[in-house]
Design brief:
7 helices, 6-stranded mixed β-sheet, 29% helix, Purple Acid Phosphatase, chain A, domain 2, 266 residues, 5-stranded mixed β-sheet, alpha/beta, single chain, binds fe (ii) ion
């Protein structure tokens, strides 16, 4: 059955591919399986290992087998060489939609994407106090949370997915050493998900974390870091399928109703 006749939309989500020059030829079969299993592919950052343009070219080549839309966010590794703009250009030329505080629609489902940042969770969150460097560090997390919020606010679709690299909750980093929790994500990323509820959140980064958790408002959060999924499902290809009901796009509401909708979501 074609996607246009289907009642659901399936997304294959995976992060932390850490593509290297030597990865040429090794990811194609995996991507072909994901492409066959889903209507779109979601990539949750750390697409490359050192953020090198050469690595991005290898990844774009490997992704050539994918026959469905591809949406991605970058991860911290994609910034390592200071060439993230080139990485984005190469992947974009290869047909990947890279989101950095933006949103897009795939078969009527909204995708809001941002890399996110770290800083810790709950009472352990780093606060903007003291040295300028600490304030700048915390501000980076705040800016990434704002990017996610503005991406979510743009969407008018009935179903939405948040696409991140860093974790928005501690639940999906459990399994990692407690000492590095503050570097794996930030509760500041959870705040927009409360104001703009989504059907699901996917992220990567915590290779030794936990596959599933929930936000404070009960939204499922999936850690789809490829190394974690390889250990979780050794007998299956390492991607997670999200299947969402395909809902008809809402009729365009008069401006006053749109305002009301926005207010009621806050
Ligand atoms: Fe990673
Ligand atoms: Fe990472």
């Amino acid at each position: 059955m074609g996607i246009e006749n289907s009642q659901t939309v399936r997304f294959a989500a995976v992060g932390d591919l850490h593509c290297r020059k030597e990865s040429a030829g090794t990811l194609r079969e995996f991507f072909a399986q994901a492409s066959h299993a889903a209507d779109a592919l979601l990539l949750c950052g750390d697409l490359t290992d050192y953020g090198l343009p050469e690595e991005a070219k290898v990844l774009a080549e490997e992704l050539g087998v994918v026959k469905v839309p591809i949406v991605a966010v970058l991860g911290n590794h994609d910034y390592e060489s200071g060439a993230h703009a080139d990485v984005i250009s190469i992947l974009t030329a290869g047909g990947v939609r890279v989101l950095d505080g933006e949103a897009c629609e795939i078969h009527g489902v909204g995708i809001a994407g941002a890399k996110g940042f770290c800083g810790g969770f709950g009472r352990g969150s780093l606060g903007p106090w003291g040295e300028l460097a600490i304030k700048q560090f915390v501000n980076e997390a705040i800016q990434e949370a704002l990017k996610l919020e503005s991406a979510l606010a743009k969407l008018r679709t009935a179903q939405r997915i948040a696409l991140l690299h860093y974790a928005p909750i501690a639940g999906t980093v459990e399994g990692e050493p407690l000492e590095i929790y503050p570097f794996l994500g930030s509760s500041r990323l959870e705040d927009p998900l409360v104001r703009y509820p989504v059907a699901a959140v996917v992220h990567g980064h915590a290779h030794r974390g936990t596959p599933e958790g929930k936000t404070v408002n009960g939204v499922p959060v999936y850690n789809v870091a490829r190394p974690l999924l390889l250990r979780t499902w050794p007998e299956r290809p390492p991607f997670r399928i999200l299947e969402l009901a395909r809902e008809a796009p809402p009729a365009v509401a008069p401006p006053h109703e749109r305002t009301q909708e926005t207010v009621s979501r806050v």
